[in-house]
Amino acid sequence: MPPLLLIGCGKMGGAMLAGWLEQGLPPETVVVEPHAEAVAAFAGRVRHVASIAEIPADFVPAAVILATKPQEAPNALPQLARLVAHAPVFVSIMAGQTVAGMCRLLGGDAARVVRAMPNTPAAVRQGFTVGFAGPGVTAEQRALADTLLRAVGDAAWIEDEALIDAVTAVSGGGPAYVFLLVEVMAAAGVAQGLPEELAMRMARATVAGSGALLAASPQDAATLRKNVTSPKGTTERALAVLMDEAAWPDIMKKAIAAATARSRELAG
Fold first, then answer.
1. What are the extents of the domains in the chain?
2. CB of 119 within 8 A of CB of 127?
3. pLDDT for 114
4. Are 34 and 9 contacting, i.e. CB atoms less than 8 angstroms apart?
5. In this structure, are residues 136 and 147 in contact, taking their beta carbons and an 8 Å threshold?
6. Considering the entire predicted model, what is its pTM?
7. Cα–Cα distance between 198 and 219 in angstroms, integer?
8. Which CATH superfamily is domain 174-267 in?
9. What Cα–Cα distance (Å) separates residue 199 from each residue in 185, 195, 211?
10. Residue 243 predicted with pLDDT over 90
């Protein structure tokens, strides 16, 4: 595994770094992070600098992982343009930053950029990341990016960058939708007379356990749903409400469409 340069060690950048270190991937990593406390957990295992200007002049990374806030890209990327001559692969997890836009900020079309969209379960190595390799990215660089992304969960690749917007809506925002499900299930239980603490424990455990079952089972989600649904039982009665075309199917389509549209707006 060649040297790595990580720009930003926030929640997602930190989760990815922890995954790499757990798997013994980077022999040498430089982390650019202005907040020292964000890197404290990695002390002694990585080289920390507070700004891009402090990156050692002789440090030549094979991959530069862009995990900074998207709004910081116009300031950060031009400072990294000097690295383009060494032909690293730039792996961006910044939402809304297109490959073409990042290339412009890096000084032109010579930059080799992979655009990726992970999600927050990466923090427990259960994430899902979708990547797109821009022009000039070699097979070896794509393989390196794939290894880095898989250190925090599963990964897949698409050939059409425009699909990243839908990926952002479904996978990137998906954990929030699941957490909301826990909230509304618990609230509905309270409305039926359950104590609030018990309702929340039940909702959390039910969603977490169902996710674990889904991950472990060879059966698809529809089959697992049917397995829980006894004919003329309580679950069937509830699903008749939830699966009405005007209920969950329509609401989820609208939600994903809204998130996809917003992702396109952010990409400019």
1. 4-163, 174-267
2. yes
3. 98
4. no
5. no
6. 0.91
7. 30
8. ProC C-terminal domain-like (1.10.3730.10)
9. 8, 6, 18
10. yes
